[in-house]
Predict the structure of Aminotransferase class V.
Amino acid sequence: RKNYIMAPGPTPVPADILLAGAKETIHHRTPQFLEIMKETLESAKYLFQTNSKIYTFVSSGTGAMEAAVTNLMNPGEKAIVVVAGKFGERWKEICDSYGIQVVEIAVEWGNAVSPEQIENVMKQHPDARVIFTTHSETSTGTVIDLKSIAQLTKDTDHVLVTDEVSGLLAEPLKMDEWGVDVVVSGSQKGIMMPPGLAFMALSEKAWKLVEKNQCPKYYFDLRYYDKNYPDNPWTPAVNMIYMLNQSIKMIKEEGIENVWERHRILGEATRNAMRALNLELFSKRPGNVVTAVKVPESIDGKKLVKIIRDKYGVTIAGGQGHLSGKIFRVAHLGYVSMFDTITAISALEFTLSELGYKIELGTGVRAAMETLKREG
Ligand code: PMP
């Protein structure tokens, strides 16, 4: 049976990227590898739309989140943290672990923080200089207005940090132009690689905090990564760097604007399919990474996710935390084409109808195809 990964990470990996990794592992302290590292990290700036250095860690995305907290914050200091889902919660949990005082902006899950909310909290807590946000909150399928939020911090001494683990390449991001200070991401989503690499980019303003930081840490201390850059302080994931190099080549070939646009169109097609099937979107500000959908009253959400995967080979995601069983999430992230989206919607229709939900087969597929024809 053929399998389709339509979950928001890990996402499908193109054969050319897998093959790029299937090469002999060379020693990392050699001129040959250093040359590859240099070229790869230089070209990775394109993904973030920045001129700042890109640091890589051998970890999942959470490692880069922890690196952001421990390199920017000292225990006892105040940080503003937006919590609107599981990954906002993660920022808070990491801060809590290091004794950082969290000023939480609690947003109802499925909603997006507004720039005004952030502005108010910035005024109330002038001693909180670092703001942690999640561009694409994967647990709720929601995107925030990062560009407007960056306007608030751009010409101030505030440092804006954003989790782009799922957002990178699916949601437009212009790190330097918008004035976003710190971006963290991971390999297994928009970058179309397997899990295992994490990324971080920092503005000069953010780097000033890193230089004088005193939070206890070792593996993720950015000063080690910067010292002999682009040489890695520890053993880098050599074969994953080969894969990253190939991924960036493919993204450059498609053009980042086209990559963003492809995600937007697939998101729009998926949302229209759900509406046509009389399904309600969970998010009030849906993004182009993943579409979160409320499970109809009459249906068992966990059963739906299981049937669509085990019987039809389409892996979608269920709800996380208190949303378990209440929503399902269909991704359109990374190496995904319109036919993957159409396939996922048709599998969803088969599954819904098997579970007794009344639909005319093809209703969602038709709405998606019409959107794709109009937009594409
Ligand atoms: N942040 C967001 C927005 C995510 O989607 C994820 C992964 N689902 C993470 C952080 C955590 O990344 P990882 O699982 O790679 O540690």
Remarks:
- The mean pLDDT is 98.
- The chain has two domains: 15-254, 256-375.
- The longest helix spans residues 256-276.
